[in-house]
Amino acid sequence: MCGFVGLLGNKNNWLGRKLISTELDRMSKVIIERGPDNYQKYISDEEMLGLAFRRLSILDLSISAKQPMLARSKNWLIVFNGEIYNFKEIRNIVNNNKDFWKTKSDSEVVVECIDKFGFEKTIFHLNGMFSIAAYCFSKKELWLCRDRFGEKPLYYSKSQKNGFYFASEIKSFMSSNIFSKDLSPTAITNFLRYGYVPERLSILKNTYKLAPGSLLRLDKSGNIKIKKYWDTYQEFENINRKQFNLGLVETENKLKSLIDKSVKSRTISDVPVGAFLSGGIDSSNIVLSLVEQGLNVETFSVGFEDKKTNELLYANKVADILNVKHNQIIIDENICKAEIENVVAAYDEPFSDPSQIPTFILSKFARKKIKVALSGDGADELFGGYPRYYKLPNNWLKISRYPKFLKKILLQISFSLGRNHNKISSVIGKKFRKLGNESLENLHCDEMSRWRPDENLYDYKKLGDTNFDYIRDEKFNVSDFRYLTLRDLNTYLPSCLLVKIDRASMANSLEVRNPFLDHELVKFVFSLPDDYIFFKSQSKALLKRRLSKHIPSNILNREKQGFEPPLDLWLRTGLREWMNDLISTEDGYLDNNYIKSISERFMKGEKKLTYKLWTIIMFKAWINSFSARKKVVF
Q1: pLDDT tens for residues 540-573?
Q2: Nearest alpha-carbon partner for 490 in 149, 146, 145
Q3: Calpha distance 84→130 (Å, rounded)
Q4: Are 470 and 441 spatial neighbours (Cβ–Cβ below 8 Å)?
Q5: Cα–Cα distance between 510 and 255 in angstroms, integer?
Q6: 387 preceded by cis ω (within 30°)?
Q7: What is the DSSP string of 117-135?
Q8: The pTM is what?
Q9: What is the per-residue pLDDT across 398-410, written as a single tens digit (0 to 9) for each?
């Protein structure tokens, strides 16, 4: 796990070795937490190429595994962030002569595989989480790629003035003295709607995230071609259309085998490994798998003084039952207040999932003992864990029967009510907006929204150009319930959840691995019929059945509890002064009088405004941070 930056210029914008070296140093300094163990650069005036790499040493801790790494043939050069879990198998395919290999790292396997089989073919066979940049000297081509589900980030930008820039985090671009740093109104609008900047957008104009499961090729003429090597919707359609012949017991055994294989592969490390444990279905399955395979690791949990949001009781019970050494930290308003500026700084784009606070603090706490942690991200999306997967299809079944003219009128009324900016209008407007939705996709977008378009916080005409735009084809034979899980795999998971865990953990130099996102495991889950995912009116039935032999039913069948801190309490206490300072500051984008009225309504007891207010607060906090970064010269 690491971080990298790079740029490829041309004769019109190449500044020469000395200035490029300074530029790379500046851009990589701001991501030092991603890789504090080693720093290396590669600069070529002939190729007009510059690469810089910050290393967090996980596999083969020796200096020989440093990057940028050159293939033996000297035809390919790579920088690589992440882990390849099947690298040992690939190494034997590339060359089974032990004397061929200079290191024990997966990085060397990747570059030599690319050299032997080509970039595209190599990426297709990688099992892992990764973002990779590779340069081919003979063809003068630069390739970028990103893992199938977006576990590892990768940004890029191309302009005549700057050339082609790419980096693990967008803060590298912001620290540049050369790169243009204009904010994107489209990205800001989408952030205000969802609470994060969805793929493919970034917060900067003309700068983009490479989509999960994608390859980018920049040829010697400067032409960009992007190609998908993994498409979640297409993969599901291809797999699920085939007849499923396994019985329930056989399915359970197969699933157990795949989870165990994935978990075991994600413990390969030359540094200490642990696991996050909330006491929920997902993390408990991972810890159970570790224990049953004799892979004894320590577990880590975070809790809150507020009993309504505290899951520590369940985490402790599971840890006791499975007999693992458990570590926990309890966050109160004072800890939150002390860490809030660090939390803001960890995110290179505006981000407002409140669980970013405990995730950051948990990562910092765990890092004192371990360097790698296993997490349960992805299980909810795969196994139907969110209530919306059952609620929205039922709503849509009713709404879809309404005539189009009536829906149009209801939508118009919702926008009119939204302009009033008061509680009653908001409640009625939300109801009308819901009934006026013209598709299940629109209903899902509203469900995922912090601020709906009809609430008039932003210009809704600037929405779009994101992964939420996908509309399923009529030929796509999938149930509404299952379709929504796929939409979340393609939107909410990469744009929110994986961003949260990546930035929070890497800000503390901790690598987090997600066993449920092994693509072979995902493909098997895609093959399952709906009634195996939602079995006897129970979500995550297969995961619960495995746990049922060990964990009491009162833990297994308790109501789903999100990883949510007592944010409303903190905003009224420890974070109140910080919040008020931000709200009183003009940001140049939002109507401050309206924002102050939202804050006042929240303080008077409108708890439902908590997440809406948090989105605004984190936007203002990020804008302050961005303004400060623009002035910094290292």
Answers
A1: 999 999 999 999 988 888 877 667 899 999 999 9
A2: 149
A3: 7
A4: yes
A5: 28
A6: no
A7: H-HHHHHHH--EEEEEEEE
A8: 0.95
A9: 999 999 899 889 8
CA dihedral over 594, 596, 598, 601, signed as positive or negative: negative
How far apart CA 477 and CA 490 sit, in angstroms, is 18
| Distance (Å, whole) CA 501 – CA 512 | 7
Amino acid at site 299: T
DSSP string, 472-487: --TT----HHHHHHHH
In our burial notation (b when 16+ CB lie closer than 10 A, e otherwise), range 217-231 reads bbeeeeeeeeeeebb
Smallest CA-to-CA distance from 58 within 234, 268, 286, 215 is with 268
Q: Which of 239, 275, 261, 286 is nearest to 543 (CA)?
A: 286
Burial class for 337, CB neighbours closer than 10 Å (0-12, 13-18, 19+): middle
**Distance between CA atoms of residues 515 and 398, nearest Å:** 38
The pLDDT value recorded for residue 120 is: 97
Q: What is the pLDDT of residues 89-113, one digit of tens each?
A: 999 999 999 899 999 999 999 999 9
pLDDT surpassing 60 at residue 634: no
The H or E element containing residue 368 is none
| List of E strands, 378-507 | none
DSSP string covering 207-246? EEEPPTTEEEEE-TTS-EEEEES--HHHHHHHHHTSPP--
- Strands of the 38-44 sheet, one edge to the other: 38-44, 49-55, 2-8, 163-167, 155-159, 207-209
Residue type, 293: Q
pLDDT in the model for residue 431: 87
Cα 522 to the center of its chain, rounded Å? 17
Identify the DSSP state of 67.
S
pLDDT score recorded for residue 629: 57
